[in-house]
Amino acid sequence: MIELIDGYYAYWFCFLLLTIGLYGMLLKRNLVKKVIGLSVFQSAIILFFIIAAYKDGSTVPVIDPRIGSDQPAAYINPLPHTLMLTAIVVGVATLGVAFALLIRIHGKYRTLDEDQLIERMK
Amino acid sequence: MYPTYEYASTVPAAAMLVSLGAMVLILLSSKSPNLREAWTLLAGVVKFALVVSLIPGALAGRVAAFEFLEIAPGVSLSLKADALGVFFALIASALWIVTSIYSIGYMRGNAEKKQTRYYASFALSLSATIGIAFASNLLTFVIFYELLTLATYPLVVHKETPAAIRAGRMYLAYALTAGLVFLAGTAWVYLATGTLEFQAGGMLDADMFSADGMRILFVLFLAGVGVKSGIMPLHSWLPAAMVAPTPVSALLHAVAVVKSGVFGVLRVVGFVFGPELMVSAGLDVILAVLAGGTILLASFIAMRQDNLKRRLAYSTVGHLSYIVLGAALITSAGFTGSLLHLAAHALMKITLFMCAGAIYVHMHKTEISELDGMGRAMPWTFGAFTIGALGLAGIPPINGFVSKFYLGMGALEGGQVVVLAIFLVSGLLNAGYFFPIVIRAFFRPSPQHPVYNEASFWMVGPLCLTAALAVLFGLFPDLLAPVFTLASGISAEILNPVPRP
Amino acid sequence: MIPEHLAVLSIVLYFIGALLIPLLARFARGMSWTLAVATSGGIFILNLAGIGGVLAAGSIRYAVGGWAPPIGIELVLDPLSAFFVLMMSGLACLVLVHSRRLVPEELPGRVTVYYSASLLMLGALTGIVLTGDLFNLYVFLEIAALAGYALLGAGTARAAVATFRYLILGTVGASLYLLGLGFLYLASGTLNMADLSAITDVTGLEPLMVIGLVFIVAGMGLKMALFPLHLWLPDVYASAPSTSTSLIAPLGTKVAAYVLIRILFYVMDPDIIRYELPFTTVLGLLGAVGIIWGSIMAIAQTDLRRMLAYSSIAQIGYIALGIGLGNVHGFIGAILHALNHACMKAGLFLVSGNLRAAGRSQEIAALDHTLQRTMPWTTAGFTLAALSMIGLPPLAGFFSKWYLLLGSWEKSNWIFIIVIVVSSLLNAVYFFRVIERLYLPKGDVKPAKDDPAGAPAVRLDRHFTLVVPVVVIGAGLLLLGLANLAIVRVLIQPMLPEGF
Q1: What is the ipTM of this complex?
Q2: N or C: which end of chain C has fewer CB within 10 A?
Q3: Is A117 on the interface with C (CB under 8 A)?
């Protein structure tokens, strides 16, 4: 694993983002801010994969005539990138559904603040 | 004893299923009460006949067995009509007929509602009881035991009053927990031994569990069967359940439910642990202390009850422990007495309950203090009551005397003077709580009931019949059915088992 | 040709059905229900053939698009997945049959979308079970979740609020799974389950993998509403349209449990999971606490559906407890209970749907004995399912408890034994409270005369789509109970993981 990364700072950054996202989701009272937290959380995970795929001194995984195809170590791993493309699509779809629900909630209760919402749902 | 062998037969299954079939017919003919009651009676007679047909085999050591299907690896839902099973099934099915006749008089006389549900549940309870009697292994036993709880619940709450519903909850809480605890014990045995088949003389070996483990296992089983057999401190549901209609109290709380409990005790003592293990692990002491305490306490509490049915209920609690205590003696006479008392108490207590029901339906009296002089108005009912009361107190020649005599013999045989003392003292206590009722009814003056005013024949007939039987069996134990022969055969089977293959 | 495609066929058919329904609705209104039921029924039959094939001839591995694993995505129909797929398709078919009356009533104008989303979700759930690829599993997980949010949040605004909370937590769960998967991938370089299993056999469990597993267990714990990650569940189940609840309550949580079982016992080495790491211990303890907590909370509820929701949390606890036991009996108990609970809970929620269809309130206090006359089949179905939940023989629930008890004894785990006994009693408390109301008049009511020839009561559950599924499930519970040994021998024994 060590050879895959050049240092841990990127992972720490990832962890920080994850925490921020979790904080937004669980503790913010405004539902839209919760969705923002959700988005940050997902992005952190996507970044995690991208960072994990990075190799110092390697290039993009498109066959370069100067390197040829006999040195796989010279290319970074393409699989996490493709996986994350899918994950991004999933994330967008989730955001879409979340906003659809929020529109429904706002249409009925005229608020997106959780405290007010609980008050009005009674 | 004679060697036993098994043969495949559908008779045990048929005896169990006949009332299940009757239940369906009863539900279908709810529109026609006469047809509905005819099904009940027909099923009762057929069931009785089927059980009777098993007696010769059970006496000769030919055991009819029937296997439904395998429900756990190596364990089947299977029935086996061994001597003990036939003994219990005989009592239950015979008394079902009597109670059914009585039920018709009681339910119609009292204009009870939901009679279809009542008869259907009754039939289902009898199926479960026969299932318990013939269960050939612990798992089958548990299944029918739980089924019995479920089938009798509608009977307990029959009146649908808040008190009845409360009693129903209490009953369920006690009985379901008991079933689960028993199941937990069963699972343990299954894991340790790989088999659950009942075996005369015990299915467990001393080396299968540690000494503490054995005691814990015994307590689990005892708690399981102890609730239905009303061993203190697990008895509270029984007096509470007296809110049920009297035929229910009669059959279920003198015969089917509580006797399933003591039957379970006998199975556990004789067929799971076995006499040797009971003694060597000190389990007989646990059982004897609990049962002896229950006999005395219940008798004292019974004296303080003014409600007739509650007094009978506490008397039941006490007498059930006679049976348990007899088994705890681990002697030949003890087992025989225990079994005889199972039969005798069923017969006498059902008489007493039916009397209580007749008094309630006909005179609307429930309290003992209201019974002054009623003996002259209802001589047949109170005559039967007197016979039952004398029998339970152990006065010859009624059949309670025979069983108590054997119980006492058992205590002597085991050298248990304390137990003998308990039997004697409680006999006096029995007299102490039954005789005042009789004296009140016959010798206290009452301006209200001077003239002859007996309940309907449908009620008086059955209770006189059972009272007469109690006297007859006291004189000739093997008169109609070889009750005594069966009982002594079973105790021989338990104490001198055929070596396991 | 069909046998080797059985693994992919059911997923594809669900998705085709999901697409066809809106298309068809343009030409023939009212066909949505028929098509949905036909699709799920057909898939049930296919899955029957599938499980038969698997048991007779071994697992079917299908490389999607012809790309050989571990590069390509692989679908695996083995005894475990075939069992879950069969259970899901059978129950889905029954619930969809039942939905005919309820969906147009609860979601007027959105019937087509509703059935389309249902089939989409079912297809994705099937995909989760069948896939042999960890990332593909994540994608199916999210498709199922998104379709599920749509189904659950479609009704009232209250449902939308509950579903929004579920969406947040559900996405956290899925994201945690994704994160854990990242760690597994980093450590092993593969996403294919069989490949990963082979690699861990050689390398053992590296620390990185353990971290990944922790995330995966946490994520799936959230999805299956394992105590203490269950908070989203009651609101969602209680406020969603009744058909959605009936569809998702029995299936959704079970699939998450399936993923746990698959990863812990099949992908990883079960011996390491059971003996060297505390995963099973923690799962078992959380399960035990969840059983008691869920049962107590269920007793405290006044709304039938909330009560059933809390009961679900308790029942999930049984499955977790079975997984946590980590022995053969525990495993059998967990799988059997997954099946039994899916059937029981589906039956119970269908009954709640029947109450809704009859215009009755879901308040427990509003239930009364008139229902017994007006909806006899429904109340009978409820009683059977409730008795099975309590664990009374010979109904199905009894036998899963029996195996869990055996497993607990085998581990000499007294706590679990006490929990199982006590919880059955608690189950009895909250279910008999309802049964009492269904069959007995309330105390102060004047007792009605026994009047067999009286006026026939107005039957409220006359429509066959409302009655038949409830009756089938009720009878099924009896059958499952009596045939439990056959199920264990034929279906569950072959799926035992290696090393058990």
Answers
A1: 0.90
A2: N
A3: yes
